[in-house]
Each structure stands twice: as C-alpha cells, then as structure tokens.
Design goal:
With about 290 residues, this protein is α/β, with parallel strands linked by helices. The chain has one domain: P-loop containing nucleotide triphosphate hydrolases (Rossmann fold). It has helices at about 35-40, 55-65, 70-75, 105-115, 125-130, 135-140, 145-150, 160-175, 185-195, 220-230, 230-250, 250-270, 270-294; strands at about 20-25, 50, 75-80, 95-100, 175-180. It has a 5-stranded parallel beta sheet with strand order 2-3-1-4-5, with helices on both faces. The longest helix is centred in the last third of the chain and has 23 residues, at about 270-294. It starts with about 20 loop residues before the first strand and ends with a helix.
Length: about 290
C-alpha cells in the first residue's frame, strides 16, 4: 500500500488556481458536503457550475457524461455524489477537492439520515424490514464508502487493499484539498487559500440531529463499524496527516480565515439573517439544479 506522505506540487498554495482549470468536488455522503455545496454556489456563476442531482444521481451523472465539449469547457465547478474519474472526459485540466469524515461517525450519520429522509432510496426498505444500526452495518454493501469514491471503484462492490491504495494515490496525484468534516472551517480556509473564494456568508445545512452520540452506543457496535470500514479508517488517517501538514504550512492564514468564518457563522445565526440566507441559498441551488439538467 502506498504510504508516501509527500504533498504534491498542486497542494494548497495561496492564489494559484490555474487559468482554465476546473474543480471537481466529490461529495462523500454525510461529510458536511451539503454545506460545502451551498457555499460553493455563492462562489461561481450559475452557468459555470454542474451539480449531480443527489436524488436522480444516476441520470444526472449520465447526462453530465453526455455534454458537449463546448459545454464542458465552460464549467469551472463540477460537484455532487460521483466517483473519481470525471477529469478523464474533460477537455480542460481539472483538480479535485473533497471532505472526509471519521469513519464511525460517518456511518452513524449515514444510517440515521437514511432512516429519516423519505427521498433516500433505502428509506422504505429500512421501514419495511425494520433495519437496526447493526443490520445496516452487517447487511449493507455501503462499507468503506470513502475509499471507493476516492478510488473510483464500484460503489456496491467489496473494498480491497488495492482500492484503498488507489484512493491514497489519487489523493496525492489529483486532489488539491482534502478537508476533514471535524475541522470544517479549517478545511474551508484551505479551499479559500487555494481558489480565492470569498466565503462572505456561512451557515450549516442538512445536519443529521436525530442520532445518538458514539458514547451512547455499545462498544461492540462501534468495534463492528470500525472492522467493516477498516479501509476507510486507513484512508482517513492518511488524509488527516496530509491535512495537518497543510494547515501547519499555512498556519497564520488558516487561523485568520477560520476566525473570520466563525464570526460570519455567528452573524448568520440571527433568526432573520438565517432565514434570508437559507431562502437565497435555496434559490441558487434550484437555479443550478435546473441548469445542470438542461
């Protein structure tokens, strides 16, 4: 398995987005990706973004791969639930970003989200068969999801050591920023440094609140989740080490931007401000979804 810790030349470096370069945001489920999506939609013109629909993602991804060369060249930001590999079909150069999450927390959040969100494909299956968390961990093929997405491997197939190694290699070769959901504001700071984003207003979206904390669950359940997602555990540790190095290399600027983001979040939490920002964000999301479907 590739365990090199060398940070590639295209890693975080202030204000170095290449002319004509597109960004591909791989949205790993339940890693604060919805919040990042809403923030991204304020940074790029609607006509320069393509969003893979989170519900009709198979159709949306197929539609994306069928776009003309001219349309693809005009898109600066591709984002959504998709596997690594989109850059292969693009006529322009591209780099990737993503956010990863501590694997046990991600599995817990995913399960309780699937169980409560009626539009999720597994919602009614969970209701019909009364799946518990342990059922989900034992029976679902959705293990090591982070490895499979970053490696571009089949989502429902078993993960392997080779897939994990490919994911690590892809991070080194193709990802300009890999953030951590547990340190989301520092992750945004790295992205702002890399792409010159403004990030003037900031709020969280789609947070799964109706779920227990890890400390409330039996250790045997936590151990089972860790065992079933051992490759994700390795990938997360690998990405976290790179993340720490990049934060350290840009310590002063990351600290300054993080403080600004926290102040912006506090301002946005005022009731009227929060409602207005949510409405405006919903409008931009809707416009982007419509344009992406054309």
């Amino acid at each position: 398995m590739n365990t090199s810790t060398t940070i590639p030349d295209h890693a975080v470096s202030p204000h170095e987005q290449k002319p004509g370069e597109s960004v591909i945001f791989l949205h790993v489920p339940k890693t604060a990706g919805t919040t990042l999506n809403r923030l991204i939609e304020w940074e790029y013109p609607v006509l320069q973004m393509y969003s893979v629909d989170p519900v009709l993602f198979k159709w949306s991804s197929k539609h994306l791969h069928g776009l003309s060369k001219k349309r693809l060249e005009g898109i600066r930001m591709f984002k959504g639930h998709m596997l690594f590999g989109l850059h292969i079909i693009l006529p322009q150069s591209a780099t990737y970003i993503t956010v990863l999450r501590e694997p046990v927390d991600r599995v817990l959040s995913a399960y309780y989200f699937m169980r409560s969100y009626k539009l999720h494909p597994l919602y009614w299956k969970f209701r019909r068969e009364n799946w518990t968390l342990e059922d989900f961990v034992h029976r679902s093929p959705r293990t090591n999801v982070q490895c499979k997405i970053i490696a571009g491997a089949e989502y429902e197939a078993p993960c392997t050591a080779e897939i994990c190694a490919t994911a690590m290699s892809n991070i080194d070769r193709h990802f300009s920023v890999v953030g951590l959901s547990e340190r989301f504001e520092e992750s945004l700071a790295l992205m702002k440094l890399r792409y010159g984003w403004k990030l003037e207003t900031y709020s969280s979206f789609n947070v799964t609140r109706a779920r227990p904390k890890k400390r409330d669950l039996p250790q045997s359940t936590l151990d089972l989740i860790t065992e079933k997602n051992s490759y994700d555990v390795s990938l997360y540790a690998y990405a976290a080490k790179r993340f720490e190095e990049e934060v350290s290399q840009n310590a002063a600027e990351v600290a300054r931007i993080t403080a600004d983001l926290q102040a912006s979040r506090d301002r946005t939490q005022a009731p009227m401000t929060a409602k207005l920002f949510a409405l405006r964000s919903a409008g931009r999301k809707a416009l982007n979804r419509v344009y992406s479907a054309i």
